[in-house]
Amino acid sequence: MTETTLIAVKPEIAARAQVDEAGYKAMYQAAAQDPDAFWAKEAQRIAWMQAPKIIKNVDFGGTSGKVSIKWFEDGVLNASVSCLDRHLATRGDQVAIIWEGDDPSSDAKVTYKELHARVCQLANAMRGLGVQKGDRVCIYLPMIVEAAVAMLACARIGAVHSIVFGGFSPDSLASRIQDSDCVLLITADEGRRGGRKVPLKANADEALKTCPSIRHVIVARNTGGAVEMMPERDHWWSDACDTQPETAEPEKMNAEDPLFILYTSGSTGKPKGVLHTTGGYMVWASFTHQNVFDYRDGEIYWCTADVGWVTGHTYIVYGPLANGATTLMFEGVPNYPTVSRFWEVIDKHQVAIFYTAPTAIRALMREGEAPVKKTSRKSLRILGSVGEPINPEAWLWYYRNVGDERCPIVDTWWQTETGGILISPLPGAIAQKPGSATLPLPGVKPALVDNDGAVLEGAAEGNLVLLDSWPGQMRTVYGDHERFVQTYFSTFKGTYFTGDGARRDADGYYWITGRVDDVINVAGHRMGTAEVESALVAHPKVAEAAVVGMPHDIKGQGIYAYVTLKTGEEPSEALRKELVAWVRKEIGPIASPDAIQWAPGLPKTRSGKIMRRILRKIAANETEALGDTSTLADPGVVQDLVENRVR
Ligand code: 6R9
């Protein structure tokens, strides 16, 4: 498979597509030439209480050094109205959410009317508990309908939700609650995943020991498992909501009022609270969901992400519901009870659009074709990929076996920070190349720069930046605007730096090569190597740790940790296991190291900087090409590390 392999848009797909090739080019040009006119028109896709007159007002700080991003700043709206109220007259009885449980015999359907009522009841309950516009509410829920209800109820009363993925530990939950001083926590007794239970309420109780800002906890009964309820503080969801009125006045929100915070990992320090606002985010969610998936009325749409990640925010809840879609929410995992589960769910619910991650595709690919082929999948029309680069082999397997060479694949590149998809083929417009995210969406201006910030033209490889703003862009890091400016706008002045590297081929197609910073991507989960390192050094026997990504067949990247023990401590298999368990407890299971190498010393420069370049090469078993080691304080440590590499 070379990069000249071009999979043309099939004529039958182009003929029916909402946007064809000429249409894409016209849209791209229109958005570039007159962004105000283009986005004023696109803004009409959502419901406004007061339509915006001022469209774009952005400064990337090129000359002033001050970064300020505003879209639709005089508009007034409520996100929950776009997702619910305005559909009631036309599609009140249409299913909004299909819920498919971890156990294949459990499912549920919720219409727009029912969803609206449940959201209003929770909104009223939260107001009754004193939650006000602008307050932060933490959501720590499994993939149950209540998660979507909680998000929309926050939006309804103008509270800012901050979802913490259910796989995070009590410590990780606590630090996120503390960073944004959340006043309310919404959780469940337990979650379910792959036949196992996740003790969410018990984790929350542990976390809340250090979270004085939380005044109340609302607990959804999910598994019925026993939990402790603290009088005054803890309320069962049903007690709080069932007697509430089924309507609730939506709060009037300015377009630039915050909608949510979502914590994500960077190269340094603790996870940052990425802040998204209301108007621009909603326009971007709706615009991209419709165009990238060529979404049509009446179709069943399934994104397999968890609402704990940005993909779940934009492409399970806000985008699809804004567009009046039927969105499927899946509680389970791809291989439970069998490795046919995804394909069985597609047949069961007649899914037309299926959006998943390369790590899931690679894991299922390993199981062979039979588990796929025994299902029909005739309902499928569009396939999507997100979270990490998809290798051409996995792309082709997905295309041939899942989509029977009938369904275009949209490989969508974006980030928590970007709010929605930025680079992706439009399925009826852009010929695909396996492994390439292809071309930017209208309104998106990517560029490649070298390490000095010089813009590279034509076919080139470099750092991926964005030259101008799009409506869905994050506005700040919660509580730390300076960190926002430093992280994204100081490396290459006047541009937004993505942290990714990319190659652009002769056709102008983008091939994302992965992170160029100290962020690793493990099974599509973003992790800062610094976070894992600080968890390791918090162990009483560890003196020092360095963590890098290593190639992993299924997860894309695995976590490889070099650990130096304190004097007098001896490495052992028991200690290795203890450290893995320690990191799971400190951060969560997604951060479990795949390999721990005992390192008597780490390769450092004379100024004491760890040379990660060398550690990455050793972890990847590329020890022939370690490069220049002459600047090391003690070149001898490298030999020891190479000899004792973990296989
Ligand atoms: C949406 C999401 C963002 C990072 C991003 C990049 C990687 C995501 C990708 C992709 C290649 C794709 N990434 N999609 N790389 N091709 N289609 O995943 O957000 O969790 O913030 O991760 O994921 O490295 O910078 P987030």
TrEMBL record:
Give every AMP-binding enzyme C-terminal domain span: 531-609
**Post-translational modification as stated in the protein's UniProt record:** Acetylated. Deacetylation by the SIR2-homolog deacetylase activates the enzyme.
Q: Where does ATP bind?
A: G387, E388, P389, D411, T412, W413, W414, Q415, T416, D500, R515, R526
Superkingdom of source: Bacteria
CDD domains reported in the protein's UniProt record: ACS
Q: Which residues form the AMP-dependent synthetase/ligase domain?
A: 85-466
Q: Which InterPro entries match?
A: Ac_CoA_lig (IPR011904), ACAS_N (IPR032387), AMP-bd_C (IPR025110), AMP-binding_CS (IPR020845), AMP-dep_synth/lig_dom (IPR000873)
Q: Which residues carry this modification: N6-acetyllysine?
A: K609
Q: Which residues form the Acetyl-coenzyme A synthetase N-terminal domain?
A: 24-83
What family is this? Belongs to the ATP-dependent AMP-binding enzyme family.
Q: What is this protein called?
A: Acetyl-coenzyme A synthetase
